[in-house]
């Protein structure tokens, strides 16, 4: 890729005299016309108080339209949001700042007036004033229908029985849209030890809606079906998970190294013997995976670029001495541009082939425009591949041994100025597999559909609900949505005078899918396939003609290195071609897509390659039956029979490169709510359907605007901010009470007594800040975890008592920073530390870290290896020079909260999942007490990953930072 394409194409942010962003200017060039540059301007408007009122993208601005408009109250809380993609939403809080009522799914009529025919009103009910004010119920009412209580919360009391199970203050019964989730016991660290899921009676019927009316719990408990599915967990003293036993009695066991990272995993099927899933995992000093050996004897090694630490190689092989013979099964090599865009992927384990006078190399090459959007891709596909829609291509069986299986292809992508993918052009000249897929985009929004549904831009909006959910998948295939904008039902086949085929879904209170039912009519009989999703387990059954023909337990072991492991255990109806209790190791690529599947003996089950936006280019398998049981594919997500991929909060249609519905996170990922991973699917990934992340291990900081949207889209965050504020007030009140009692004592007695008090005015000055966190797991079997009480640890930067390993920088030295970082200054003239408040130099990092560990140990905790690594990285990225105003890096309250969150995880892979669903709050204990305290320079540099700081960062860290390697 020519670097001249990106020359003089900066992103320019224009500020008004108040420092508010009023324009974002981007400069677009296409590789086919590098001399032509066009300016793309995104505009923002604010009211007199500085609150955002409008945002407009380049395309709609030309049409005189606005993407989003906001109406705020005096405190800046958004009362009304009008988005062209997701409709109108009104949100009101009560006097305590808790969510009180929202009205969503309000559309706009042709004459511009509001259309509330699809509106859904949601109200929250809370405990009385004598209690903590926790939610006890949620009521929802769709326009024209009766109100329903869709969720109820029951909190444990303070009885000896509840205390014995550590349930005091916990939500023990959550009645939600799927049924009842019960928490039966909790560890001291807050990890649920026993949870039970009960589904609604007739949950398979999509027309059944939860309604938890009445105050009599005995009546409510008759609504879920008989029996339940209980998951058990054991932990160590730090909260790390040691074993899990799923609802069918299958037991998983984990072991960890001295750094707390996963080192081994075992599985014992019910009434079976223990088998090894992960033999060993080896990590670098930086915590990156270097080598993994699985229970099938296959070894995966990882290679990183020294300068950037980007992953450049994943090699999976059967080593010498393996029972099936030594063989390199997959050897993926990655090449990047300086920014981190993937330019080339090659598989050195595959051979170069020749067919019809063309050379077919096992590699993919990618080209981006100046906005980092993918515009062309080349690779190989099966020679018998045709145009793909919602159906998978036929697998090549058995595994190909000749050279006629593959041919070259080229795909090009076209976008409009708002980032909507409008055309996919496919070309494979050797086979004549040439076609174009057109997407019609609305002239009033970013809603878009395949041109087979309509070619008229003005007719696109009619194919969406008021909330921005697509109403047809293909012509004649209707989509039905819940009032919460969850996909309820797909009708793939419509029959006149007969029952339609359907696939329906049911979700829990967190909008996570817990049940899928597919009904197909075949002549005179009906076949029903049912999948129930539980923690670590999927229960799949097939009933045909009223008789159960298959019962399958899929034990989901989860990630193990760069592999996902699933064990298929049939209790009835096992296919004759497959062995019982089949273990399937799925080896992923950089984007998490499942490319290579091996069995428990290390033999290949299937191999699959993908087009950039998710279609299947190559699919080979040793048997069709084995290929049929592969459900996890592109991006590591489940592919439904509809062809849609389920990501967690949204469904994705790979043939169009678009989401099926508007982003539930609002504008957290941009003004276009349907754009997939910012149109760069080979360098970016979306884990759950809400926010895009770069794949080169660098993550953007959360800005204040993003935080505001997170509060808006997740009322629980606002609720727990209030609870955290109350916890801070308790600390302040306790200090006041203690001070009053100390004043009554004589000096000697006062000094001795104050030492035994946790909070006094003097101690608050040293503590300075109070932090806490909320973890909201995405799994349906877990309950939210909230913990507060973290305060700053002592660390002096005075001349008389300087922190170990540190040398203070005096005024004379400040003017000569070259002696500390001559190479950095030589590389970039932009790097100049701000010296007005004074800095210190960490001269001996090991001594510095050692003292931090001692302080953590003295506080009753242990500095986690991951947090230590982050502190070291923060020091390195700042050339070991830190501002004195920010204190000692790693000792502040919010970093301790981060340390506790990471210490609760059971595997390195689960760290990312835990952090992405964690929210950190910090407030002041001195000065403007009980007010939110933005994270300082050091804390922002250490808490720099997936976790969310809900109380802000210092000004220099509020912008979205691409990566420190630029």
Summarize the structure.
With 966 residues, the protein is mainly beta. It is built from 15 helices and 58 strands.
Mean pLDDT: 88
| Name of the level-1 CATH class of the largest domain | Mainly Beta
Per DSSP E runs of 2 or more residues, the count of β-strands stands at 58
What oligomeric state do the depicted chains represent?
single chain
Which strand-content bin applies to the residues?
35-45%
Distinct helical segment count: 15
Unreliable stretches covering 5 or more consecutive residues: 697-705, 811-837, 955-966
Supply the CATH architecture of the largest domain. Answer: Shell
- Count of spatially separate domains: 4
Largest sheet: 31 strands, antiparallel
Distance between the termini: 18 Å
CATH superfamily of the largest domain: RHS repeat-associated core
Query: What is the rounded Rg?
Result: 29 Å
Look at the helices and sheets and give the structural class: mainly beta
Describe the structure.
The chain is mainly β and 966 residues long. The longest helix has 29 residues, at 715-743. The radius of gyration is 29 Å and the shape is globular. This is RHS repeat protein.
Descriptive tags:
966 residues; mainly beta; RHS repeat-associated core; 58 strands; 38% strand
List the helices and strands and how they pair.
Elements: E1 12-15, E2 21-30, E3 33-46, E4 52-56, H1 58-62, E5 68-72, E6 78-83, E7 87-93, E8 99-108, E9 114-115, E10 120-126, E11 135-142, E12 148-155, H2 160-164, E13 171-175, E14 179-186, E15 192-199, H3 217-220, E16 229-235, E17 241-245, E18 251-256, E19 262-268, E20 274-283, E21 289-294, E22 299-304, E23 311-318, E24 327-336, E25 342-347, E26 353-355, E27 358-360, E28 363-368, E29 374-382, E30 406-415, E31 421-427, E32 435-441, E33 448-450, E34 478-481, E35 487-491, E36 502-507, E37 513-522, E38 525-534, E39 537-544, E40 547-559, E41 563-572, E42 582-588, E43 594-598, E44 604-610, E45 616-621, H4 624-628, E46 638-639, E47 645-646, E48 651-653, E49 658-659, E50 684-686, E51 692-694, H5 704-713, H6 715-743, H7 747-755, H8 761-767, E52 769-775, E53 785-791, E54 806-809, H9 811-814, H10 822-827, E55 839-842, H11 845-858, H12 865-877, E56 881-883, H13 893-903, H14 908-916, E57 918-924, H15 937-942, E58 948-949
Parallel strand pairs: 57-58
Antiparallel strand pairs: 1-2, 2-3, 3-4, 4-5, 5-6, 6-7, 7-8, 8-9, 8-10, 10-11, 11-12, 12-13, 13-14, 14-15, 15-16, 16-17, 17-18, 18-19, 19-20, 20-21, 21-22, 22-23, 23-24, 24-25, 25-28, 26-27, 28-29, 29-30, 30-31, 31-32, 32-33, 34-35, 35-36, 36-37, 37-38, 38-39, 39-40, 40-41, 41-42, 42-43, ...
Organism: Salmonella enterica (Salmonella choleraesuis)
InterPro entries: Rhs_assc_core (IPR022385), T6SS_VgrG/RHS (IPR050708), TcC-like_repeat (IPR041508), YD (IPR006530), YwqJ_deaminase (IPR025968)
Protein name: RHS repeat protein
């Amino acid at each position: 890729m020519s670097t001249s394409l990106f020359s003089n194409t900066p992103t320019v942010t224009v500020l008004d005299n108040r420092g508010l962003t009023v324009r974002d200017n981007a400069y677009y060039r296409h590789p086919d016309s590098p001399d032509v540059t066009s300016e793309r301007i995104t505009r923002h408007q604010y009211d007199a108080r500085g609150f955002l009122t409008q945002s407009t993208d380049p395309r709609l601005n030309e049409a005189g339209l606005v993407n989003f408009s906001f109406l705020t109250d005096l405190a800046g809380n958004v009362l009304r949001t009008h988005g062209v993609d997701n409709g109108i939403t009104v949100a009101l809080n009560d006097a305590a700042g808790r969510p009180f009522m929202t009205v969503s799914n309000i559309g706009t009529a042709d004459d511009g007036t509001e259309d509330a025919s699809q509106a859904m009103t949601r109200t929250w009910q809370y405990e009385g004033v004598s209690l903590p004010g926790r939610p006890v119920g949620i009521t929802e009412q769709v326009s024209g229908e009766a109100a329903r209580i869709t969720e109820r919360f029951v909190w444990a009391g303070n009885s000896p029985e509840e205390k014995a199970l550590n349930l005091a203050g916990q939500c023990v019964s959550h009645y939600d849209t799927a049924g009842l989730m019960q928490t039966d016991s909790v560890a001291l660290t807050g990890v649920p030890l026993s949870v039970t899921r009960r589904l609604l009676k007739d949950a398979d019927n999509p027309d059944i809606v939860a309604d938890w009316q009445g105050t009599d719990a005995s009546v409510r408990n008759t609504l879920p079906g008989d029996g339940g599915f209980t998951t058990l967990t054991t932990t160590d003293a730090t909260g790390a998970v040691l074993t899990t036993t799923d609802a069918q009695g299958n037991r998983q066991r984990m072991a960890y190294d001295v750094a707390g990272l996963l080192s081994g995993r075992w599985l014992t099927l019910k009434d079976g013997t223990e088998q090894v899933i992960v033999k060993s995992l080896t990590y670098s000093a930086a915590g990156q995976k270097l080598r993994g050996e699985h229970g099938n004897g296959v070894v995966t090694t990882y290679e990183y670029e020294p300068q950037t630490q980007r992953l450049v190689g994943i090699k999976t092989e059967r080593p010498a001495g393996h029972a099936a013979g030594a063989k390199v099964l997959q050897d993926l090599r990655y090449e990047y541009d300086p920014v981190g865009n993937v330019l080339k992927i090659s598989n050195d384990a595959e051979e170069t082939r020749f067919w019809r006078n063309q050379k077919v190399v096992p590699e993919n090459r990618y080209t981006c425009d100046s906005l980092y959007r993918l515009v062309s891709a080349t690779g190989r596909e099966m020679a018998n591949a045709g145009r793909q829609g919602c159906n998978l291509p036929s697998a090549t069986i058995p595994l190909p041994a000749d050279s006629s299986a593959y041919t070259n292809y080229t795909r090009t992508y076209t976008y409009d100025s708002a980032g909507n993918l409008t055309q996919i052009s496919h070309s494979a000249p050797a086979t004549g597999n040439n076609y174009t897929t057109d997407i019609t985009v609305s002239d009033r929004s970013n809603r878009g559909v395949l041109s087979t549904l309509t070619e008229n831009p003005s007719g696109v909006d009619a194919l969406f609900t008021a909330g921005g959910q697509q109403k047809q998948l293909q012509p004649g295939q209707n989509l039905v949505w819940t009032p919460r904008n969850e996909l309820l039902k797909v009708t793939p086949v419509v029959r006149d005078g007969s029952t339609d085929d359907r696939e329906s879904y049911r979700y829990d209170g967190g909008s996570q899918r817990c049940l899928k039912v597919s009904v197909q009519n075949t002549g005179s009989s009906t076949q029903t396939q049912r999948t129930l999703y539980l923690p670590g387990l999927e229960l799949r059954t097939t009933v045909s003609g009223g008789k159960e023909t298959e019962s399958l337990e899929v034990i989901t072991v989860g990630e193990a290195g760069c592999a996902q492991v699933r064990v298929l255990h049939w209790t009835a109806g096992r296919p004759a071609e497959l062995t019982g209790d089949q273990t399937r190791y799925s080896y992923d690529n950089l984007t998490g897509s499942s490319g290579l599947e091996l069995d428990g003996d290390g033999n290949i089950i299937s191999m699959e390659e993908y087009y950039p936006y998710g279609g299947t280019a190559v699919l080979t398998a040793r048997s069709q039956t084995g290929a049929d049981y592969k459900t996890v594919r592109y991006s590591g997500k489940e592919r439904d029979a509809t062809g849609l991929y389920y990501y967690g909060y949204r469904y994705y249609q790979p043939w169009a490169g678009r989401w099926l519905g508007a982003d539930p996170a609002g504008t957290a990922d941009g003004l276009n709510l349907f754009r997939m991973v910012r149109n760069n699917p080979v360098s970016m990934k979306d884990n759950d359907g809400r926010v895009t992340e770069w794949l080169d291990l660098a993550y953007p900081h959360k800005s204040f605007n993003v935080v505001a949207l997170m509060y808006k889209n997740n009322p629980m965050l606002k609720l727990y901010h209030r609870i955290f504020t109350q916890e801070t007030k308790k600390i302040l009140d306790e200090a006041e009470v203690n001070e009053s009692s100390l004043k009554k004592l004589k000096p000697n007695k006062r000094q001795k007594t104050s030492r035994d008090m946790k909070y006094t005015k003097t101690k608050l000055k040293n503590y300075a800040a109070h932090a806490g966190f909320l973890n909201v797991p995405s799994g349906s079997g877990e309950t939210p975890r909230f913990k507060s009480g973290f305060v700053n640890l002592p660390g002096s930067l005075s001349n008389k008592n300087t922190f170990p390993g540190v040398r203070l920088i005096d005024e004379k030295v400040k003017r000569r920073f070259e002696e500390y970082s001559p190479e950095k200054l030589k590389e970039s003239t932009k790097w100049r530390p701000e010296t007005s408040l004074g800095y210190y130099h960490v001269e001996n990092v090991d001594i510095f870290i050692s003292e931090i560990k001692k302080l953590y140990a003295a506080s009753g905790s242990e500095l986690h290896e991951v947090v230590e690594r982050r502190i070291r990285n923060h020091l390195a990225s700042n050339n070991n020079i830190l501002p004195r105003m920010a204190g000692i890096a790693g000792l502040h309250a919010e970093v301790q909260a981060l340390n506790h969150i990471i210490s609760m995880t059971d595997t390195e892979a689960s760290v990312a999942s835990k952090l992405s669903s964690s929210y950190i709050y910090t407030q002041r204990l001195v000065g403007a007490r009980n007010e939110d305290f933005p994270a300082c320079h050091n804390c922002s540099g250490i808490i720099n990953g997936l976790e969310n700081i809900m109380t802000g960062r210092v000004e220099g860290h509020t912008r979205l930072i691409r990566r420190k390697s630029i």
